[in-house]
Amino acid sequence: MNRLQSNTKQKTKRSFLSSNPIMRRLDNVDEHADSNCATYGGITLKTMFFLLFSAVGILAQAITAKMLAEGESSVLNIKGFKVSVTNAEIIVLLAVLLAGILLQLLAFFLRSTTPVTGALYCASQGYFISFLLFKVLGAYKLEYLGFLALLITMLIIAVMSILYTTGVVRVTKKFKMVITTLFVTMIATSLFTFIGSFIPAVQPLVKTIQNNFALSIAASIGFIIIAALFLICDFDTIDHVVNDKLPKKYEWQAAFGLSFTILWLYLKVLDLIITIAGNNNKD
Question: Are the beta carbons of 240 and 251 closer than 8 angstroms?
Fold first, then answer.
């Protein structure tokens, strides 16, 4: 990560949903250090540290899958892919995902724990990514699609970085309002389909929406766009952390916030690719 912008920006308040929670809290920090300040290099190294733990999670899933390969199994239909998974694997996966949510909350509320809770959160996401790659796509010899998702994610990050550093996209009130509107719309739609699936009167409508390939693609692309825009807000916050000379301890929150967005972006890109591949698999 190079310097995102050399000029010091005036700190502005963000709306509640205009950036990921970790980064949003950093915008309200008003501490300054004459020495031992946060740097772009320090944030870069810590971001690499967190993302490395996602690789640890991938390795952990591969080991766990071999250990739990025996036993009662169930056939899951995941976006058009029928996958046989042992009940023990399902339980462990759900436990890991639940732990990821709790670790994310701990990293948010207890800043001092971020180096540990943030690393473990990234490991939990790596575990889930590995499940999708090697259990779902791997059953059909399509693991390479995970590398395609990685390349697309890296390209999006590079493009967003260029747009931000060149000033083509600026974090203004209008920009934040657009992000908030898009995010609220997507979340509201997701909640409607989830809750509606339990209500008999609207179940037919929900099933129609869920089985509509075009709508699924549109939803995935929508979340990818939102995640990409969140990257711009993350870059803006990192500028604040460095240019306003926040103490070095805040590098951990900045790095975790950026890692959080990157992993979310990758998962959404992977979800889009799995949706397309699953639809082709049906045919």
Answer: no
How many Cα atoms within 13 Å fall on the side-chain side of residue 170? Answer: 7
**Cβ atoms of 24 and 240 closer than 8 Å:** no
How far apart CA 140 and CA 251 sit, in angstroms, is 41
Distance between start and end Cα atoms, the chain? 43
Structure tokens at 3: 């310097």
- The 8-class DSSP code of residue 16 comes to T
**pLDDT tens-digit readout, 20-58:** 666 766 766 677 767 788 899 999 999 999 999 999 999
Q: Which residues, including other chains, have CB under 8 Å from residue 119's CB and lie 6 or more apart?
A: 49, 50, 53
Environment class of 70 (CB within 10 Å of its CB; exposed 0-12, middle 13-18, buried 19+) = exposed
Locus of tokens 């952990």: 60
* Inter-residue contact 48 to 259 (CB < 8 Å): no
Judged by DSSP in three states, 73 sits in: strand
Q: Map tokens 């805040």 to a residue.
A: 250
Predicted TM-score of the model (pTM):
0.85
CB-based contacts of 54, cutoff 8 Å, min separation 6: 122, 123, 125, 126, 129, 263
Structure tokens at 123: 């490991």
Per-residue pLDDT tens digits for 91-149: 999 999 999 999 988 988 888 899 999 999 999 999 999 999 998 888 888 889 999 99
The contacts of residue 198 (CB under 8 Å, 6+ apart) are: none
Identify the bridge partners of residue 82 per DSSP, sorted by sequence position: 77
